[in-house]
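Hypothesis: this fold can be encoded by more than one sequence.
Test: take the structure tokens below, design a sequence, compare later.
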């Protein structure tokens, strides 16, 4: 009977060193193999040319190296790149490279499908199949970093966890992936260039604060009125705004990091003066800024982008209250790569 081999990349460096000692080899062999796996991105044991043939065979007998494969890559007219990424078990997730004049940002997925059910989001229609492993998250970033160098002659500058899935529902693996991305053996990126975007899971926001994470926090808010928010993000009934507010106050008290609220304005849903007033009140609980995001329709027309007049009202009222507001135009709409459109359609 064949036993299932373990993914060697699930082992820490320490565990790899211990493995080699248990095999009667030297500890440093673990360092060498770790370097092949993470710094040099080896996909096969036979690529590890400074490791003896016998040792490579022994590794082959015990482990597999699970790597993602970019199954399909699409490029938008505006330069945005969308990868459909095949995981070792055949499941697919999507990740996106968003270029601007100054930066290239990777938008990565944390789950296959999503545990939550935001009504405006294409991913919510996919059943949540499983959480991504740390190496699967890391590999998405590496793939986009390569594309950034290939197409834009510069390495990836920023990462947002805003692809498929709710990152705080896969917290431990997201954290491990970020550790790897920021470590010298990984990509050596500054955590300040990484944003984890959540729909707002209060308990996990507090946990992030307790863990003293160094990356940024964004919250997909979309309404500061419980009734409205629950109608578009039904899990808000379980995690109401009062709980979210308390968690965000806790986050700021511990980290002193400003919070970004991601906010889409939809016609007839949250485009009234009352909605803006509620948002302004919510912004006062902890230092924050608002990112108004252009809406990308997903095919059934239930949600429509609000009028320019409504967007202008938001901007002027927020600015009059001294709240920083930015407007983010969508990228990659023609290839379904924009916010809320990731649904494995390619
Ligand atoms: S918006 Fe985010 S949390 Fe909500 S369903 Fe989509 S992927 Fe999940």
């Amino acid at each position: 009977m064949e036993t299932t081999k373990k993914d060697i990349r699930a082992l820490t460096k320490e565990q790899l060193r211990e493995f080699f000692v248990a095999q009667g080899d030297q500890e440093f062999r673990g360092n060498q193999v770790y370097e092949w796996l993470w710094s040099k991105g080896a996909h096969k044991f036979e690529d590890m040319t400074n490791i003896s043939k016998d040792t490579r065979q022994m590794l082959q007998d015990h482990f597999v190296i699970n790597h993602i494969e970019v199954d399909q890559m699409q490029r938008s007219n505006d330069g945005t790149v969308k990868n459909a990424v095949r995981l070792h078990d055949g499941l697919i997730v999507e990740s996106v490279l968003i270029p601007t004049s100054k930066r290239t940002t990777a938008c990565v997925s944390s789950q296959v499908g999503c545990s939550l059910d935001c009504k405006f989001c294409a991913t919510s229609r996919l059943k949540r199949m499983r959480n991504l492993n740390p190496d699967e998250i890391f590999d998405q970033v590496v793939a986009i970093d390569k594309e950034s160098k290939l197409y834009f002659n510069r390495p990836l500058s920023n990462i947002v966890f805003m692809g498929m899935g709710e990152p705080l529902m896969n917290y431990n693996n997201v954290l491990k992936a970020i550790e790897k991305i920021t470590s010298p053996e990984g990509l050596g990126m500054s955590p300040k260039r990484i944003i984890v975007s959540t729909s707002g899971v209060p308990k996990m926001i507090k946990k992030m604060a307790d863990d003293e994470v160094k990356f940024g926090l964004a919250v997909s808010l979309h309404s500061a009125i419980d009734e409205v928010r629950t109608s578009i993000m039904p899990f808000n009934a379980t995690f109401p705004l009062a709980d979210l507010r308390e968690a965000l106050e806790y986050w700021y008290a511990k980290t002193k990091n400003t919070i970004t609220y991601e906010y889409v304005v939809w016609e007839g849903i949250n485009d009234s003066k009352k909605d803006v007033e509620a948002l302004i009140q919510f912004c006062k609980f902890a230092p924050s800024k608002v990112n108004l995001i252009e809406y990308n329709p997903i095919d059934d027309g239930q949600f429509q982008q609000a009028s320019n007049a409504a967007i202008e009202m938001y901007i002027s009222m927020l600015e009059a209250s001294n709240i920083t507001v930015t407007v983010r135009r969508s990228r990659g709409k023609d290839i379904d790569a924009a916010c809320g459109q990731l649904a494995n359609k390619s």
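DSSP finds ten helices and 14 strands in the chain. The longest strand covers residues 92-99.
Hypothesis status: open.
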